Amino acid sequence: MFAIPQVLSLLLGFMRDEDAPLWKGYFYATLMFLLSCLQSLFNHQYMYTCFTVGMRVKTAVMGLVYRKSLVINSAARRTCTVGEIVNLVSADTQKLMDFVVYFNAVWLAPIEIALCLFFLWQHLGPSALAGIATVILIFPLNGIIAKKRSKLQEIQMKFMDGRIRLMNEILNGIKILKFYAWEKAFLEQVLGHREKELKALKKSQILYSISIASFNSSSFLIAFSMFGVYVMLDDRNVLDAQKVFVSMALINILKTPLSQLPFAISTTMQAVVSLRRLGKYLCSEELKTDNVSKAPLTSDGEDVAIENGTFSWSAEGPPCLKRINVHVPRGSLVAVVGHVGSGKSSLLSAMLGETEKRNGRVAVKGSVAYVPQQAWIQNATVQDNIIFGREKLKSWYNRVLEACALMPDLDILPAGDATEIGEKGLNLSGGQKQRVSLARAVYRKADVYLLDDPLSAVDAHVGQHIFDKVIGPKGVLRDKTRILVTHGMSFLPQADHILVLVDGEITESGSYQELLSRHGAFADFIHTFANTERKESAIQRAGSRRSNARLSMVDFMPFSRDLSQEQLIGGDTTNTNLQNMEPVSETDQEQVPEDLGKLTEVDKARTGRVRLAMYKKYFKTIGLAIIIPIVFLYAFQQGASLAYNYWLSMWADDPVINGTQIDTDLKLTVFGALGFVQGIAIFGTTVAISICGIIASRHLHMDLLNNVLRSPMSFFERTPSGNLLNRFAKEIDAIDCMVPDGLKMMLSYVFKLMEVCIIVLMATPFAAVIILPLAFLYAFVQSFYVATSCQLRRLEAVSRSPIYTHFNETVQGASVIRAFGEQSRFILQANERVDFNQTSYFPRFVATRWLAVNLEFVGNGVVLAAAILSVMGRSTLSPGIVGLAVSHSLQVTGILSWIVRSWTDVENNIVSVERVSEYAETAKEASWSIEGSSLPPAWPQSGTLEFQDYGLQYRKGLELALKGITLQIHERERVGIVGRTGAGKSSLALGIFRILEAAKGKIFIDGVNIADIGLHDLRSRITIIPQDPVLFSGSLRMNLDPFDTYTDEEVWRSLELAHLKNFVSNLPDKLNHECSEGGENLSLGQRQLVCLARALLRKTKILVLDEATAAVDLETDTLIQSTIRTQFEDCTVLTIAHRLNTIMDYTRVIVMDRGHISEMDSPSNLIAQRGQFYRMCREAGLV
């Protein structure tokens, strides 16, 4: 590297010396070329090695974080959300990789700087010290700026984390947002985070512009100070071509380490921050392996024993279970009962070792299978979910499906058990998820079964079937040890042992008969409910039930319905218009059955170069008014630079009169002025571009957010949330920082290149002959590379999504994975996904190296041309011009590789613009509110509903889910809707809320056709209590009333009616109690009550109740029912009932069957008619 200026000095010496032989000139020219080539080769070999090492570090850390997420305990899990953990894998590991690549610059750069200064000293003597002084001044300035920026970056990352966390929840609870018309409130929140994030970014960018400007003018400043001091010191000091241009070449070399150093330092700083974050996560508490002592099976004795156990969720927190003594003998069935929030699930967690053990001992013998309360389903086929890593035994597998009542469901699914399930089990109903989760446990053939309320989400008769076939004394698991948490009273008589939990303590235990004879709390409890649920009688009628069990699921459902709609309205059990899911219908007979069961759209990789339209879109977002001045500023800046360089060469060619040059002061002033003008211009351009970038990214984010929130429900079922989050995190980040930075670099280097070409042509016009072919070669290499690189980049991005999706799943299902002991398999899966991602990452940077080497040869060609041509024309050329030409051509290699690098950066990151605007073309919902619509503010006043020949379908081309429903509901009527799973009960509710638009017919509310009003106008005036309770992280108050429309008194009043007042007033923060992500710090029953409180607060004239009493114990259930009876008595109430006893006193009951209304009358009349309703009541033991 340092040999090149020495050779240049010799060459210029040769130019001055009239009688040196020509071969010397040619020799110097070729030598320069060869040295440059060698430098290129060494440099890139080094970069390649660095990258490989960096990549290995990155994969290793990713693996570490993943493995850690499988052993982290629940207290630590609560401190960091899924979003933050995913961020560690995506952002922080990348920072570490960058660090490995650029770290050597930290110590290499100072050495290079020292060498440069040493050579300068040789040329210019002590005035080189002035140069050193300049360097010393520039450095601390940049150091301070870098420190400030890393602080701003942390602030920005904090807001970004917050924004992504919010987005994650919005996507998980999108259904609720739609039902309640809350999109606007959440939109505001996200934009609030975004504005703060952009504010930090703007500050950081302006500081960055200062440092860029000081850098780009650094070579000028150093030259100015050195030459100035050199000329001032002594009149005898003459600047000739040799001194000027060799110094300039050295100063240009000096710029590389100077520019690398801050970059390396900031990378190091970022890496340190990331290391700290990773360290904090990797050091967070793990589950203690001694929480549970595992032992192999013994022939007799107890399988599960807890002695004097006290457990809590976190080391500091209050204990959730106290003084627990449980002994479960081999092969017995133990039922655990208790109110909502009494610690039933915690007891199972304690047996699994998920909770913090304060004292006592827990022993479990043999293998364990666990069914969580909220089923955890992977994004894989049904079969994979059930087999869960074991080999498939055909007969046993079928027996399990049969026992779990899954056979009929598989008949409905388009590809049977090969149907892919969306993430979190999107396209299964709640009951189906629960049964798949149960089947996974049964398939295991474990020794101990921990079942956390697996029968809650299924219809009563299916629940009975499962209890008989699986859990009960005659079930598949009869010889195993089973611990069952349940709310179903009908199963208790068949349990060997019952534990009653109250507030984390076991108050009573014993068999059913013993507990009844004790006349304790349990006995009262049973007596209260024995009259409401006389299911025991139903058990005796085994004969009649035998026949129903086969019909339990929807055998008679028309095949073209996608899936059972058991729990359609609930949170994520969304309806099923999933792409390509329809069975082959008459229209597309030739459809390949291969993708029948596919559901989620994979993130697609676009092919080819980025379309021009994307650039147009990006620049249009910014606006022409700003773009044109930017281009002018650039031209101006380069013009100034060209002028001061040319001025130098004139100065160098000035004749020396008796040892001095004339007018040195004037020359110095002009030189200085030109340089400073250039510096200011640079600052202007960089600031302008940064601000443009921020304007553009603000618009693009805004559009993306609006597009996503205005998409219909079907869109969210098709699109995995990982893809959407990727857009909001990675792609927006790229648009924020990468695109403007890339543009800055690219523009400044393109103009620089023009300047170099102009100078070389001024010196030797003949060089055009050589520069043109080189330009063509360059263009070819670049276009070849940019296309490849873009494609590789896209492939890499697409293979990145599965890593995060898998990660997300693992973190959410960690307890299940641990219970089944499947950690190693999941770790292998994660590693495979990371490896697959690396296979497209590796070629990408190898391609970059290939490009760089090729380009540098092109650049070296320019050097050779300039040198040889100047040797040929030495008779006519002055040394000044030659020096100018050759020292500039030496920069060409650097400039070229930077242009391509920044160009590909821009191309690669413009892909983000493409991916972010992808969702602008998807179908949208109807508008939220219609301007100038004449809805009276109090609408609906009476709450009458009228359906006229109403039909509904889930997707074009499918059979109607509701066929020609005509029905009138009067004000203050209470109507129960019943029917087998998939009869269209929930579809009615979806139609009223226009989650699905009508295929034919109309719905009128108070005489207003709901299709003619805005969605928010409609959805905010009617209320639904959905099946799955979804809470968002934020205060409890925000969960009840995100728009702050109600007073605190009203909020407390609604909590009191929802029986939550005591619970909330005992919380330290009361209404401001922070709910964690997804409301995980409240029990399922409490979340259900919060949803009830929401409805009470809105108090609209029409209430749709998708019977959500599955997760609530019977006592709370009666409370809810009585609250609804009293509080909503002047409203119209529609209940989609799963339990018939709740609707026996309603004014009317509608029996749905396959999308038709088959019977409709008051309950007593329907029973008298002895039709379908009567049969259903008989099954439930109500008649």
UniProtKB/TrEMBL annotation:
Which Pfam families does the annotation name? Answer: ABC_membrane, ABC_tran
Q: What class of enzyme is it?
A: translocase
Per the record, membrane topology reads: Multi-pass membrane protein
- Which domain of life does the UniProt lineage start with? Eukaryota
Spell out the subcellular localization from the entry.
Cell membrane
A Gene Ontology cellular component where this protein is annotated is: plasma membrane
Q: What is its main location?
A: membrane
Keywords of this entry: ATP-binding, Cell membrane, Membrane, Nucleotide-binding, Repeat, Translocase, Transmembrane, Transmembrane helix, Transport
| Residue span, ABC transmembrane type-1 domain | 1-270, 630-908
Where do the ABC transporter domain residues begin and end?
287-528, 945-1179
Which GO MF terms are attached to this record?
ABC-type glutathione S-conjugate transporter activity; ATP binding; ATP hydrolysis activity
Which Enzyme Commission numbers does its entry carry?
7.6.2.3
Q: Where are the transmembrane segments?
A: 26-42, 99-121, 127-146, 206-233, 245-267, 618-636, 673-696, 753-781
The record's Gene3D superfamilies line, in alphabetical order, gives: ABC transporter type 1, transmembrane domain (1.20.1560.10), P-loop containing nucleotide triphosphate hydrolases (3.40.50.300)
Q: Which reaction does it catalyse?
A: leukotriene C4(in) + ATP + H2O = leukotriene C4(out) + ADP + phosphate + H(+)
NCBIfam families per UniProt:
MRP_assoc_pro
Q: Which family would the database say this protein is a member of?
A: Belongs to the ABC transporter superfamily. ABCC family. Conjugate transporter (TC 3.A.1.208) subfamily.
Instruction: Report what the protein is called.
Output: ABC-type glutathione-S-conjugate transporter
